[in-house]
Amino acid sequence: MCRWLRRAPSSSSYERDAEAVLLFFTRRTLDVEVALDLTAETFAQAWRGWRRVRVDSVEEVQGWLFTIARRQLGRYLRRGEVERRALNQLSFLGTSVG
Question: Comparing C-alpha atoms, which of 15, 36, 35, 37 is closest to residue 25?
């Protein structure tokens, strides 16, 4: 295992991957603010899980990071679906929303 990957993630790893992760979210949510929030949460989770990850290359780190990003996106989309269903039920019941 290379020495760089044994240490805590550095700012260079963030600088290298943050733009790609942000672009990933922006293209899928079409909302820059949501994309920024999801990017921040992705890197926060990566930071918390860094000690558990076992990788041998930068590419594996990036794969691991994008796995976290895909899971974040899934959670976001599921949460939005639940909120839309709740709003639809409220409007079906004649409750004023807003």
Answer: 35
d(CA 39, CA 91): 33
Look at the pTM and tell me if it is higher than 0.70: yes
Q: Could you please report the per-residue DSSP string of 4-40?
A: HHHSPPPHHHHHHHHHHHHHHHHHHHS-HHHHHHHHH
What angle do helix axes 58-92 and 32-49 make, rounded to 10 degrees?
130
Q: Which two tokens stand for residue 27?
A: 């293209």
Q: What pLDDT, in 10s, does the model give residues 48-85?
A: 888 777 777 888 888 999 999 999 999 999 988 777 77
Task: Please report, as a single letter, which amino acid is at residue 6.
Answer: R
Distance CA 49, CA 36 (A): 20
Packing angle of the helix pair 11-29, 58-92 (nearest 10 deg) = 40
